[in-house]
Amino acid sequence: MQILFIDESGSPPPVDKVPNSPLFVLGGAIIPDDFWHRVKVDLDAAVREFKINGEIKWRYFSPDNRKQHSLSHLNAAEKEALRTKLFGIIAKYKSIRTIAVTVDVAKAYALQYVNNPDELYWFAYKTMTERFQYYLQDISRISGQKINGIIVCDHRAPDNDKRLQELHAKLIQGQHAAHSNYANLIEGVFIAPSHLSVGIQFADMVAGAVLRKFKANDDRFYNQISDTFRKSEAGKIDGYGLIRFPKR
Fold first, then answer.
1. Could you tell me the CATH superfamily of domain 2-245?
2. In a 3-state reduction of DSSP, which class is residue 173?
3. Using one digit for the tens of pLDDT, what is the confidence trace for 30-61?
4. CB 57 within 8 A of CB 145
């Protein structure tokens, strides 16, 4: 069983706020069920080492975040060491794969079928789940047996969560136009608060690293996990592990 954990970095804005949020990213961490406990052990060790009380979020590493949070007691060097350790956990296990969808908000709103933040998120989510299905097909073919997967997302507003669950169900049941065959996915999407999910905290770090790369032209965090992104047989990441929406 493969588990895809999904979180976002940046926020899908309404049409009139596009200049404030021109890009947002969905990040995904694919963790096999038999590796989840190892990842949890590693995360727990990092939490003890850095004396963290609470969840770890990408935005907490920013020096501009003045509110009290679980990393407030760490100085800049300690935060950098923690972030490096977390990316090291992702890269440590060859069975863990990552996926990210970058959304160019202005170009997305230029599409006739994208009209609000909910639809921005939905099409990014659909794009990511398609790649997850392709990944499950790939490893099923290699292993010679069917490998299934489930999806766990960070919770948003209750109405957004409910709509996502309904749309996800339509994908699985084949009731949504122009989508992939999700034959390897099991059940609906599971919604979990990030502070209660090991995987979502790592998905948040993936999303943050990718957002930093494309928004600030800073790839030093992305480079620490670049080998974990899903690739084609020829080693291509674009379109496989890093997907742009819209494509053009």
1. Ribonuclease H-like superfamily/Ribonuclease H (3.30.420.10)
2. helix
3. 999 999 999 999 999 999 999 999 999 999 99
4. no
Q: What b/e string do you get for 153-191 counting C-beta neighbours within 10 Å, with b at 16 or more?
A: bbebeeebeeebeebbeebbeeeeeeebebebbeeebeb
Each residue's pLDDT tens digit, 114-170 = 999 999 999 999 999 999 999 999 999 999 999 999 999 998 888 888 888 888 888
Domain coordinates in residue numbering, the chain: 2-245
| CA nearest neighbour of 29 among 5, 9, 7, 10 | 5
Global pTM value: 0.93
For 127, residues 6+ apart whose C-beta sits below 8 A from its C-beta are: 101, 243, 245
Contact status, residue 114 vs residue 87, Cβ threshold 8 Å: no
Please list, in sequence order, all residues whose beta carbon lies within 8 angstroms of the beta carbon of residue 199, skipping any fewer than 6 positions away.
Answer: 3, 5, 29, 31, 36, 39, 152
